[in-house]
Design goal:
Mean pLDDT: 93
Structural class: alpha/beta
Radius of gyration: 21 Å
CATH architecture of the largest domain: 3-Layer(aba) Sandwich
Helix content: 25-40%
Number of helices: 13
CATH topology of the largest domain: Rossmann fold
Distance between the termini: 13 Å
Strand order of the largest sheet: 3-2-1-4-5-6-7
Low-confidence stretches: none
């Protein structure tokens, strides 16, 4: 098939989850033998050899709110390649590609990774209702109605009007060939004086919970356990606060953002993968844990046991006691204390090895990008039939 993939607000190559996702899906579909043209923003660095035809097409002024202004440019691409399927990465003010699919008779796929429905107390919903006819809600629902297939990690973030037959619930994934135990390369950090090293990789935003890992290390030190260390990889608005909390602790290291091609070696240099999500710190998560957590799948592919809170659908992604240690956050329980207890459970290297092997097996079976792309391919072919 000829597939057009419009993700013009995502820079490729890039270090953030959206960029990694777009690159993995485009190249995964191409690896299945399809001709893939991907419309993306220009990322930092150079793209290596790729089976994908990458077309630089960022929204005006880099604003995703202006994506529709690229409709004419995308029409020219569409007229030239005549795609059999059009995939668009959803944005509230999008629709620049998927609306063209009807004219072509192409399968229209909407890729939804953030809520289409409004969460309780959403300022956007208040503005929409003040406009009386709710134009933003109507536009979003029109985009959903335009799609033959909606691909999402969680159906809870879709309008109730979307027929279940059009929804394909698919998790994100990991490159299980690159992310593996003992991946080659030099980790971007020196192994500190700690026998057990936990890694956090991701955005430094409040709901990703990096601060809780730092506080958990401090709790362990207060208990006399100086043998635990932490590596925190990434950037974001919370980094200064988290780094300040870690001041003076020699077993906590910050690397900053690193190129994604260095991540396999970074994870191979650690012992535990930590995903200390804090759902209460992000209002849209009142709709449920709709993320498909890239960091967890890459930890698992690298053979790391997972430590994460037992909230919402996380226990469906990893099994407590098999691939992960999941901790409760009941009334009166401090996040840092619960996380510290979970880390302490994995002080035994034999248990880490057993659970890490189980995590690796599940990543290969359930959470590879190859499996994601095969399922996406099947969804498109089902519509074509």
């Amino acid at each position: 098939m000829r597939i057009l993939y419009s993700a013009i607000d995502q820079p490729v190559p890039g270090t953030k989850g959206g960029s990694i996702h777009v690159a993995a899906v485009a190249e995964g579909l191409a690896a299945l033998g399809h001709t893939v043209t991907a419309l993306v923003a220009r990322g930092e660095g150079e793209l290596g050899p790729s089976p994908v035809h990458w077309v630089e097409m960022a929204p005006p002024f880099g604003s995703p709110h202006l994506r529709l202004a690229r409709s004419a440019s995308i029409r020219r691409v569409v007229d030239e390649m005549k795609p059999d399927a059009v995939i668009e990465r959803y944005h509230n003010f999008g629709g620049e590609a998927i609306r063209l699919s009807r004219d072509l008779g192409a399968v229209a796929v909407l890729e939804v990774n953030a809520p289409i429905v409004d969460y309780p107390g959403s300022p956007k919903a208040l503005v929409d209702r003040a406009l009386l006819v709710e134009p933003m809600r109507r536009w979003r629902e029109m985009l959903c109605a335009s799609a033959d297939v909606i691909v999402t990690p969680s159906a809870a973030i879709l309008p109730r009007t979307v027929p279940a037959s059009r929804v394909r619930v698919l998790e994100w994934g990991a490159d299980t060939e690159r992310f593996r135990p003992g991946a080659p390369g030099q980790p971007p950090f020196e192994r500190m004086d700690a026998t057990t090293v936990a890694v956090f990789a991701g955005a430094f935003r409040s709901w990703h919970g990096a601060i809780h890992l730092v506080e958990a290390i401090k709790v362990l030190r207060s208990r006399g356990r100086d043998d635990f260390g932490a590596v925190l990889i990434g950037e974001g608005s919370e980094r200064a606060r988290v780094q300040e909390a870690a001041a003076g602790i020699g077993t906590i290291v910050f690397t900053g953002a690193i190129p994604h091609e260095r991540m396999p070696a970074a994870l191979a240099g650690a012992d535990i993968g930590v995903a200390p999500f804090d759902l209460g710190a992000h209002a849209p998560l009142a709709l449920g844990f709709y993320w498909s957590p890239l960091k967890m799948f890459e930890y698992m592919a690298a053979g790391l046991p997972i430590v994460a809170p037992a909230v919402d659908r996380i226990p469906s992604l990893v099994e407590n006691g098999k691939e992960a240690v999941l901790y409760g956050l009941g009334d009166g329980v401090r996040h840092a204390d619960a996380l510290a207890d979970a880390l302490l459970t994995l002080a035994d290297p034999r248990l880490r090895e057993t659970m890490g092997a189980a995590a690796r097996d599940r990543a290969v079976r359930d959470y590879s990008w190859a499996a994601h792309c095969r399922a996406l391919e099947c969804a498109i072919l089902d519509v074509r039939r």
